[in-house]
Amino acid sequence: MYTKQASRLRFKFMRDQLSDTQYHQLNASLLRNFQSLPMDRIAYLHTFLPILEKREPNTFLLIDYIKANYPNTKIVVPKSDLQKNIMTHYVLGEQALMKNKWGIVEPEGSTNQVAVGLIDAVLLPLLSFDMEGNRVGYGKGYYDRFLSECRPDIRKIGLSLFDPVDKIIDCEAHDIPLDSCVTPEKIWVFSK
Fold first, then answer.
1. Considering the domain boundaries, does residue 102 fall inside one?
2. Where are the transmembrane segments (predicted)?
3. Reduced to 3 states, what is the DSSP secondary structure of residue 70?
4. How many angstroms from the chain centroid is the CA of residue 151?
5. The pTM is what?
6. pLDDT band at 135 (very low <50, low <70, confident <90, very high)
7. Considering the domain boundaries, does residue 51 fall inside one?
8. Cβ of 148: how many Cβ atoms within 10 Å?
């Protein structure tokens, strides 16, 4: 059993300890498992863009796979408003990408904004998750606020380079659990 803070510290440390080879192997395995997810009914897929220096799952690999195999699926990425702690969402196209002050890669400019209600599924960043689908992020609440605005039927798919912990003991009412989580070992599916 872990508190959110203990879980954050443990999994940040574990990520930091990964060699380049381990990191690339874990991402290759995560991609293989991701490829087994049914994506044919997803018109708009929201994904985070990774902070590679923090060893986040490399969603650029997943984006390339989706573009090649599901060309009608629109990839949607967030742009953070660091003053208001909210995100806006844009179709990923040919626009340039830039890093914000936190090192998060975001689309430059503000064209092709997407209404939250159009999004069918979201790939969620996390530091850890538990056997019940509770996720632990960086603690700013961006994704919990975003998910609370989404349709109730949106698919919430976590991405993790590590397996779950047994239980996160300090989850709160506003924490929105995952429907599933893709790891290098398997896809974890959670009952509602």
1. no
2. none
3. coil
4. 17
5. 0.94
6. very high
7. yes
8. 11
